[in-house]
């Protein structure tokens, strides 16, 4: 029949064969992605409404703590809720995608032990859940811009670049931890802790202007999420939002290096997954 193909499993297959199999199994990627999205809210009382309530509740708490209690100022001319929600939108995309990818092999352990397919499909399918949540949070942000009468900047045309950088960064870190998570189950306990600490180590609820002129500024900018969050915020809020283009250089270089190394590490350990599940 038209559209059918046969995959032959053989020892010592080339790297080219692997990527060819990955492409031939793209329909499985679609099926796994749809399953991950539906399972996320299955048998929940509020369903997709959780994707609306979580960012709103987090934003309200952060505004209260950082703005009203800690008296931290936002960038001049930028309402504090918009500054927080813009950072929270892209951070949530990273954290959800990173967490889903890190757990993807263990979640699909029944498939790993029973049938052959390129294991990279499982981390890739996990990205769909994080992206759906991102779109919902982004929609909330757009609604709040009307409420605060703050126009969207023309720099929004650069937004896809920062979304792509977030995808690359989350995939790079996620693949590395996905391999470790199969071998060492303690990693599953470490991941939520890293996400929680990372949110405060990144400029989600505050502006990076706080790091300007400090002794740790150059180390702060080495964090790949700093350039991504500041750049994403700049795309939405315009020049009123602080953005240091130099931080983007380290972000792009580090993210690509981490992704390449993680892909190599994942491919080397891929055939051992079934031994530890």
From TrEMBL:
GO CC annotation: plasma membrane
Signal peptide coordinates: none
Keyword Transport carried by entry: yes
Domain ABC transmembrane type-2 residues, every copy: 46-269
Transmembrane regions listed in the UniProt entry: 44-68, 80-99, 120-148, 154-180, 187-206, 247-266
Short name of one Pfam family: ABC2_membrane
Chief place where the protein resides: membrane
GO biological process: lipopolysaccharide transport
PANTHER family hit by this protein: INNER MEMBRANE TRANSPORT PERMEASE, TRANSPORT PERMEASE PROTEIN
UniProt name for this protein: Transport permease protein
Organism lineage: Bacteria, Pseudomonadati, Bacteroidota, Cytophagia, Cytophagales
